[in-house]
Design brief:
single chain, alpha+beta, 25% strand, elongated
């Protein structure tokens, strides 16, 4: 929102978190720009500033009651040539297509500006509304299918960094044989429902859904979003158990034997995982790098028979209250090294033989 002197007086939190109300300088003046000519409030690039002045400059001339020479002295030097293109404008509203820098890319936008007048008809300001240049039907579909809180959590990881987090890998056991037994359409419907249910379990536990590979699911539970390492470990275990239960419910809904539709899961703790978002034209996802990620995959591969194998490093992150609520007593858990499991894979014996694990699926409250 601009006042009648074209100073920004309010912006959304998404633009300047925690600064909803401002008393800024003239929006296109030298005081509003940093050394790289970006606007200090909106972060607009030099070219974006030039486009904005082209579309709003006519109103600025009218509101300030100055001629081009006076306005040329008021604006940032990089914008002075734009002033020659401007004509005073008294229109009630305006709409134009625009582009802006976002997530290291360029975003197409639709901008709508609306004049605000007092009871006497005097202009007291201008409201500028900006939305992605995407049909509302598409935006509605994304918002209906996606979880807004999860998308907002993903935004917090736009900048990759080292973060302590719990890791969850889950995979449909015996999927190759199952895919041969079932009609293709039935098997696809099963995988789709399990994937949706698994994602929902992760989201409800406060986690971040990672990459889907076939019928497998990866998820991360960062301490910074969970509130503590103990909370992150608890959320990971809660999600794993919920996914296991949801898989059985999906099997029943498709009249399949629950014993033939089982999920194996591996849970681990990473103290220094490198976690961040990967955004491409085709997808958006959160991923993590680190030895513990590979180790979690090895743990999951050993969890046959519908087990949920959690590492000692993860379980010992639980505080006493959470452990009791989950039905786990860390002081009386008997761990087994991966290499000693009768289900240990060759890769597990090679890459992570000495990791101690415990089947939390067998633990009860």
């Amino acid at each position: 929102m601009f006042d009648d002197r074209w100073r920004i007086v309010a912006v959304p939190n998404e633009v300047t978190p925690g600064r909803g109300a401002l008393a800024g300088p003239f929006h296109f003046g030298p005081e509003a720009f940093d050394p790289h000519q970006k606007n200090t409030v909106t972060g607009n690039t030099p070219e974006e500033n030039r486009d904005a002045l082209r579309n709003l400059g006519g109103w600025i001339l009218s509101d300030l009651g100055v001629d081009r020479d006076a306005l040329r002295e008021m604006v940032h030097p990089s914008l002075r040539d734009i002033v020659d293109e401007l004509e005073p404008n008294e229109a009630i509203a305006a709409c134009w297509d625009d582009r802006a820098s976002y997530f290291s890319g360029t975003l197409s936008l639709t901008s709508v500006a609306q004049r605000v007048r007092d009871a006497t008809g005097h202009v007291v300001g201008t409201v500028l509304l900006v939305k992605p240049a995407v049909p509302m039907g598409t935006i509605a579909m994304l918002c209906a299918a996606g979880d807004v809180e999860h998308l907002q959590r993903m935004q917090r990881f736009a900048e990759p960094n080292r973060r302590p987090a719990a890791v969850l890998f889950a995979d449909l056991e015996g999927s190759t044989q199952l895919s041969k037994q079932l009609p293709t359409a039935t098997y696809f419907r099963l995988v789709r429902r399990i994937t949706r249910a698994a994602d929902q379990c992760v989201i409800e536990a406060g986690g971040l859904v990672g990459r889907h590979v076939g019928d497998g699911v990866a998820a991360f539970f960062a301490a910074e979003t969970a509130g503590s390492e103990a909370a992150a470990a608890r959320a990971c275990i809660v999600a794993a158990r919920a996914i296991r239960a949801a898989t059985s419910q999906v099997a029943e809904s498709q009249d399949l034997d629950r014993d033939n539709v089982t999920l194996r899961a591996g849970l681990h703790w990473g103290a220094t995982l490198y976690i961040g978002s990967i955004i491409t034209p085709g997808r958006t996802e959160v991923t993590a790098l680190g030895d513990e990620v590979n180790e979690a995959a090895r743990i999951e591969a050993c969890a046959t028979g519908g087990r949920i194998l959690a590492s000692k490093n993860l379980i010992e992150r639980l505080d006493r209250a959470d452990a009791a609520d989950l039905g786990i007593d860390p002081n009386h858990v008997t761990y087994t090294q991966l290499t000693d499991l009768d289900t240990a894979t060759d890769k597990a014996r090679q890459d992570a033989p000495s990791i101690p694990v415990y089947d939390i699926a067998a633990a009860t409250k």
